[in-house]
Amino acid sequence: MLKGFTRIFKPLEILNEEQIEAIHAGTLDVLRRTGIRFESEKALKLFEKNSCKVDYSNNRVRFPEGLVEDCLRKCPSSFHVKARDSINDMIWGGNTTYFQALSGTKSIDLDTWEPKTPTRKEYYDAITILDALDNIHIVPWYTPWFGFKNIPSVMAMPEGLAARLRNSSKFICANYSMGCEVFNIEMAKAVGAELRTSMAAAPPLTFYSDAVESAYRVIEAGFILLLVSGSVYGGTSPSTIVGSLITGNAEIMAGIVLAQLIKPGTRVIVQDFSFPQNMRSGSPAFGDIGISLHQAAFNQIWRKYEIPRDGGVSYPSSKKIDYQAAYEKTIISFIGALSGTNTIWIQGSLYGELAFHPVQAIIDDDLVGMIGRFLEGIEVSEETMALDLINEVGPVPGHYLNKAHTRKWWEKEQFVPKVGDRLTPPEWLKTGKKDCIDYAKKRYDEILSTHKVNPPLTDSQENDIEEILKKAREYYRKKGLISSAEWTSYKNDLKSPNYPYE
């Protein structure tokens, strides 16, 4: 089982108890007085059966406070999650933080920084990189990219999940669109893994039918539900951080009520996926410090509810692997970790979800290692205080380089990056003045030449996945959701002698 990084000190708190209570009361007020819109007759009937006020004319549900608080209590405070290989299983909740890769709609050219559509081989290679990186514990949906060349958009999610299952034994996630969660659930069960799938709100205060239907399917399969509020404050939620927290928390709590009414004890994890609006362009202000304030407050509130948290979504505004990307990612992920989130998204992304590159993921993995080392804190013991050793060495000319204590402890106490430049200036000049991007490119090549997923899928599992993909293709073809032009390109891709890996 993966141990992740366990924080051994008190988490960051930016709200006092009165403020937390005011936000909680405000959230319940929104649920009781304003209500949440659900575009699902099945959900509306379930809510009405459980004492909610349902207005069928506008699909509005108003929730009694007692029901909301009862459903919050039914959520497990921590739980086991099952990867394809049990060595990668995890326990979500408590003081442990795990890290997960991010995604992009396209790749980028590292020389020109222009976006480009990845090939199937590039997609599969990128997952191999993510599987090899020490500090990636979760490979989520859309990762590394939303699709690849010659693939119909409607098949991007099932094909992406198949690629992740084939190339990684870590915990894998999948999402919903056009009913693809049906095929995703079948694939996960075929390889003995669990999935985490979201139920995403459509701010303000709305859930559409596809999100609700997916939630039913995920819960009935016994898998994990990620409840997401994804507002842009100033656009789809109030511009104030507190106002946005209240509407976002109301959306998430409404989702929790639905989940616990469907199946009491359903494992849920809650996510703050909100961003301030860039008032100049209208786009989300990725990398803004307000994101960290929002997420720190969110983590503090949901720690009090004792429900596992997914936060610290570290999208930068930078379009390049550069200093700006580094500081924006570092601040958001570090504050997320310090404020007690259980999973953080970071490795691989550039501007929003528009770009991903595995070289960025390799660099980010060093950053995560540093954050993780900080979370583990300082061990104070008789051995680490080293009083007898200090007495033995004494003043100058004494030193500690030749001591067994040093050989034992320096690697435990320090974090040594895999691609960071730690050379002295003379060494750096003599070896070609390489930077972390150069070293990450070299590591990329080394991983692809040596890393093999362990264990690989069995022949039976591979056949099951392929049969499920065939079923998905036939389903979407009959629905008319794959055009003739898409189907022609896709068929040629499927006939490749190296399918599915190229």
Can you put this structure into words, describing what you see?
The chain is an alpha/beta fold. The protein folds into two domains: 1-377 and 417-502, Trimethylamine methyltransferase-like (TIM Barrel, Alpha-Beta Barrel), CATH 3.20.20; 382-413, no CATH class. The protein is 46% helix and 13% strand. It contains 18 helices and 19 strands. The strands form six sheets. A seven-stranded mixed beta sheet has the order 1-7-19-18-16-14-12. Strands 3-4-2-13 form a four-stranded mixed beta sheet. Strands 5-6 form a two-stranded antiparallel sheet. α10 (323-338) links the parallel β18 and β19 (343-347). The chain is globular, with a radius of gyration of 24 Å. It starts with a strand and ends in an 8-residue tail after the last helix.
